[in-house]
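no rush on this but wanted to send it before i forget. what follows is a protein written twice so to speak, once as letters and once as structure tokens for the fold. mainly i need to know what kind of three dimensional shape the backbone takes. thanks a lot i owe you, the record is right below.
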Amino acid sequence: MAGSRPARCSRVDPRDQSHGASATGAPAPRGGRRSGPLSVGTRRFGGLSIVAARAHLTEEFQKRYRGVQADITLLRPRRILIHVAGEVVRPGLVELQGPARVSEAVRAAEGLTGGASRRNLLIERAGGSVDRADLDRYSILGSLADNPYLDDGDVVQVPMSVHTIVVFGEVTRAGTFEFRSGDRLSGIIALAGGTRAGADTDSVELWRFLSPTESRRLFFSLRTVLADPPGVPEDPVLEPDDRIYVRQKPGWHRSATVLVAGEAVHPGAYSIPPQGQKASELVARFGGFTPYADLNGATVFRPDLVPREDSAYVRTLQPGTDSGREDAEFLKARAQASGTLSVRFRKLVAERDPKSDFDLRDGDLVRVPTRTGSVAIYGAVRRPGAVAYRPGARLEEYVRDAGGYGERADRGKVRVTKRATGQPMRLADASSIDDGDLVWVPERERVSFIKAVGSVTGFLAQVATVYLVIHQATK
């Protein structure tokens, strides 16, 4: 058989060229022997499939001859002419090998234009009847009935796509679908690939426009709508521009994850309950910390702590304006906000202090740095740099390791920057100096002679003013 048509689909037409032949068995007439060509005369097979024509031919042969199995071969399928009009790249007359479907005629016209309809194609038959084609149901669902065969002289009309239906939520292919008159909810859900595993099949929300500015919300049971057979009364007929929302079941497979990085025995991602988990429990799960872990420097980064957008109040506090001191301090603290949660892993792990325990949340990142074994000390010291860390050592010991204070060291303004938070603080506010901390010893402010004289002069002037006021008052 020429072409690629399956025999059960191809139909014989009077314009097809075919060949009938006898096959196996002993070709003898009923009641005697006979040699030579076999014949059953002229038979009409127009409109029958190849399979049906073969069966019909075998039956005719067996009426006259014993043991004959007939066959039929399609030598040259007919050619058909189809008119394709409307929203195709090259409208006009196309020639196809019969039988052919609507999709082949569209392809022969070099495909659809950008705004063409895929679900409302019309087929005007030579006999006057009109059929419809839905290429989406054919390509997505494999519905052959929506991609019918064409006959010679048929006209395929491809209109513009006008109305749509939008499907949101828990379906395989959420998106916009062309509306076709008579669409039901189950049909559109099928075009959207069906529902996902987490879909709430007890209800689906449908928004329907009653006017250009008015709409209403309807609810239907997906469980009933998708039941067999389709088209039950509960399966609503859709209208142009409907919006369908398929919700997810509450709490469906909700998960939470915490990442652990650095000097943990088993770093990596850990699933935690959606409501969170105590830090002590997670520490036990990842096996605790390695001997090289710097527990004082361990931090928890929480993305929700990072400011994402300035409030109206913050936008009014622009640097360089006449904001008060408290406002300036607020802006400085906000600029330093890094999303780091204030935690005390050493107290929690080493001292087993239950008050230091805290809840970890979804998205948290636990960072456990490696111990540096040093404290950095800079500024007005004789040998600035890193010195060996000694647990419990005081500032004076680290200063001595750095060669002592410089001549202009301002000992009352020493600052300590904590490794864990990066936050500078006064020495008096730091409970201890820990591994990896940075100590800054500033210099005393230099006061010039002229400035000193000016300060003294100003003081004497104020004293003179006070004396004159008192003298005048006592006269």
